Structures are given as C-alpha cells and as structure tokens.
UniProtKB/TrEMBL annotation:
GO terms for biological process: 'de novo' pyrimidine nucleobase biosynthetic process; 'de novo' UMP biosynthetic process. This is Orotidine 5'-phosphate decarboxylase. InterPro entries: Aldolase_TIM (IPR013785), OMPdecase (IPR014732), OMPdecase_AS (IPR018089), OMPdecase_bac (IPR047596), OMPdeCOase_dom (IPR001754), RibuloseP-bd_barrel (IPR011060). Keywords: Decarboxylase, Lyase, Pyrimidine biosynthesis. It comes from Sedimenticola thiotaurini. The keyword Lyase applies. It comes from the Bacteria. CDD domains: OMP_decarboxylase_like. Catalyzes the decarboxylation of orotidine 5'-monophosphate (OMP) to uridine 5'-monophosphate (UMP). Homodimer.
Amino acid sequence: MTVLSRNPRIIVALDYPSAAPALDLVSGLDPASCRLKVGKEMFTRLGPGFVEKLVGKGFDVFLDLKFHDIPNTVAAACAAAADLGVWMVNVHASGGSKMMMAARERLESLSHRPLLIAVTILTSLGEKDIAEIGFSGAPADNVIRLARLTADSGLDGIVCSPLEAAEVRPLVGPEFLLVTPGVRPASAVQDDQKRVMTPLNALNNGADLLVIGRPITAADDPQASLDRIQQEIAGFCGAQS
Ligand SMILES: O=c1ccn([C@@H]2O[C@H](COP(=O)(O)O)[C@@H](O)[C@H]2O)c(=O)[nH]1
C-alpha cells in the first residue's frame, strides 16, 4: 500500500444544495475516520472556497468534477484543482489516453500532486443504458477495457462499481485504486444507482474506497447512519490493518 493508506475506507459524498447541512454533518466527523467528496452540485453552488474550507479542517477531499475535454483543458483544470489542496481529482477515461496522460503529466510537475483517477462506466448505467450511447457488451466488459486504458496511461486508479472490483483487480495490480460508488447498505434504497453492493461485500470484492452519499446524507440521522456503516466494515478494516 504505497499510494496511500487505504484507511479510512469511506468517502462521504457531500451532495447538498447548500453549505449549512454539509458543514453540520462535517462538524461531527473526524478526518481520521472518513474522507469527503465534493461533486458538481456543491462545487457549482459554493465554489473553490468551500473545498478549501474542508481541506483546512484536515480532511482528505476528493474533488469529483469528472473532467472530460481536450487534453490541454483537462490538464489545466486538474492543475487548478491541485491548487485547492485536494487529495484526489478525477477525469473520464472515455476522454482517451492522450487526455489522461496530459492530466497526469501536468500534475506530476506540481509540488502538491493529488491522486488522479478516471471514471470508467458510471454506476447509474446498466447494459441497455450503455448500448444507447454506443458501448457494446456488459458494463463489466467496458469497465475492464477502460481500466486497462487508465492503468496504461499511468493514473492512480479508477471509479467503478464494486461489482467489477474482483474482475479488475488481477489486471491492474494491488496498488491501483478501485474507488467505488454504488454502495448501498442492505436496508437502503437503490435510488438512481444500477450496479450496487453493500459496504462489506464491496470491500470483500476488492474495492479500496467506498463512496457513499444518500444512505448517509439523506438519513434522518446522518451521523448514526455513517456509524452503522463503519460498524459493518469494522471487522474487515481491522483485519487489513
Ligand atoms: O460512477 C459514478 C461516479 C460517481 N458517482 C458519484 O458518487 C456519489 C454517489 O452518491 P449516492 O448518493 O451514494 O448514490 C454521487 O456524488 C455521484 O455523483 C457515482 O455515483 N457513480
């Protein structure tokens, strides 16, 4: 585990329409026990200052803006993200190897280099959805293809469903990060996610990091919901450390 210590395993997706409920949840969290993700909703509403505030509180922040553009534009956007002090940034693997390599090379030239990962196939998409946009085969086949492209481009890992983790792992080695949204406790609703697993099954299947949003943020008691998930995976994390 040279890229990072895989603990804490949970990345809380802060998908809120305003800062107040997010900061309320964050005020009860310990940077040693979970990481945070800021995505398109909060970044668009609140901007870089919100990200810097979370970084300033000592959290590892995954800036999930999924850049997908020409290589020069994506490389510059990744450098701008690095300037915010974030721990991890991402791009879409379907932007191609030239785009991914440009982003990696640009980050490598900086003194603070966040981890760089690529989204393979969104966890909200099933086989029919990907056929509609011209991808043939099962989601897993496409995840594997894009995981190989991402690894060959020198990135640190991918975003995929935990369902694909076991198949991808032997192809990319132990250091390559498998970051998995599409995580649902057994009692939770699936929402718009199609390729899901429970937190413990996700880790057992080879996921490194679990991105979890609504099962925590939409709960009546978000902190209690996070605590329950931490308890569910505690045995696995203890066995790994
Ligand atoms: O394939 C992907 C890539 C990113 N996401 C993001 O993860 C969270 C998941 O939130 P839930 O509420 O747990 O469904 C969300 O911010 C997505 O933008 C993803 O779900 N799938």
